């Protein structure tokens, strides 16, 4: 084997591996938050909110279906979307830590959605121009839905922040809890760097300024202060998760684990 | 020439079959009315459909309904393909589809997404534009819940998408 043949091949394989991991991350984010929102079904403070949270969860699971199916295709090892969703354990999940955080009270759920959806909107807007056509197609579809998520979460931030003494106290506490997981959304690593160079991925660090501006405008309207600086907690992209993810997966994956290969 | 005629005849036949396939969530309109059917290729032969919402549970049902309708019409060889890009928009709902939605009690979306929020939502029952949103999220991903202040009736609005 001469090196001038194997080198381009290695580079191509490395790029494929990076694309697999990148698409898997996006799919994991959507799947885990979709599952979290489903936990509110039948338990929300009022019917309209119940419908809204279930709708948001449905959109996110829809994104996950497309993203995980595509990840399986890239990997080429015979795993489809369901296989990736239901037959991986905690360490193989690469979602960001923010989405696996338990819903807490309604205010914490809104804070989590607010921080996530503003980020996802900017990211998907960027991915609409990806050189990867499949990824761009998924982003173009999802961006219309995420715009709704942003409006929903932002309106509730304002209502809770500029509401009663109790709603304000609760949303402040929700924001304080979630804020430590926001830095991770803007992390750049070897996977994103490789794909940014080829125009496939968006450089997440480049979204930070627009993000801070967007959430700042909403916080101002809600008469809420900016979140106090906190040391960011990271590690989700590398499979280092909180204990919460295991509990979530145990519930989500129960059926395929108990009855392998069950079909409708 | 004869082949070209029979191909266009087949495409027309497929279109007729699809025009009778109802949307599973809103059976008053067909999948053609909703603009879900993007392409009919008689030479393949195949049809291309596009999902309305990424997580819409109706997507799988629609595919099964199309298959059943094609089988029943003696067209089992037609392949069904799904296409995500360009994404579906309410702009693709036909005029006939909009009228059927209104008659069914659902306020149709504005004719163009560029008019989002700039056109009043008229009550599908009494046509009054004294209406207000109750909940942006309704019984299905494509609908929001509204209320008419003139006749007092709540109603669904098809979301501009």
Characterization of the model:
- The complex is a heterodimer of chains A (264) and B (161).
- Chain A has 264 residues and is mostly helical.
- Chain A has a single domain (10-226, 235-258), classed as Ferritin.
- Chain A has eleven helices and no strands.
- The mean pLDDT of chain A is 94.
- Chain B has 161 residues and is α/β, with parallel strands linked by helices.
- Chain B has two domains: 2-88, GMP Synthetase, Chain A, domain 3 (2-Layer Sandwich); 93-158, no CATH class.
- Helices cover 27% and strands 19% of the residues of chain B.
- In chain B, strand 1 (37-41) and strand 2 (46-49) form a beta hairpin.
- Chain B is elongated, with a radius of gyration of 18 Å.
- The A-B interface holds A 34, 47-48, 51-52, 54-56, 58-63, 65-66, 133, 136-138, 140-142, 144-145, 148, 151-152 and B 51, 53-57, 84-88, 134-139, 141, 145, 161.
What gross morphology of chain A would you assign? globular
Written as H for each helix and E for each strand, in order along the chain, the element string of chain B is HEEHEHEEEE
Kindly state the mean pLDDT of chain A as a whole number? 94
β-strand percent of chain A reads under 5%
The helix-strand sequence of chain A is: HHHHHHHHHHH
CATH superfamily of the largest domain in chain B: Fe-S cluster assembly (FSCA)
Number of domains of chain B: 2
Main β-sheet description of chain A: none
Strand order of the largest sheet of chain B: 4-7-6-5
Distance between the termini of chain A: 49 Å
Just give the CATH class of chain A: Mainly Alpha
* Total of helices of chain A: 11
CATH superfamily placement of chain A = Ferritin, core subunit, four-helix bundle
What is the fold named in CATH at topology level of chain A? Answer: Ferritin
Mean pLDDT of chain B: 89
CATH class of the largest domain in chain B: Alpha Beta
Low-confidence runs of chain A (pLDDT<50, min 5 residues)?
none
Counting DSSP H or I runs of 4 or more residues, the number of helices of chain B is 3
Largest sheet of chain B: 4 strands, mixed
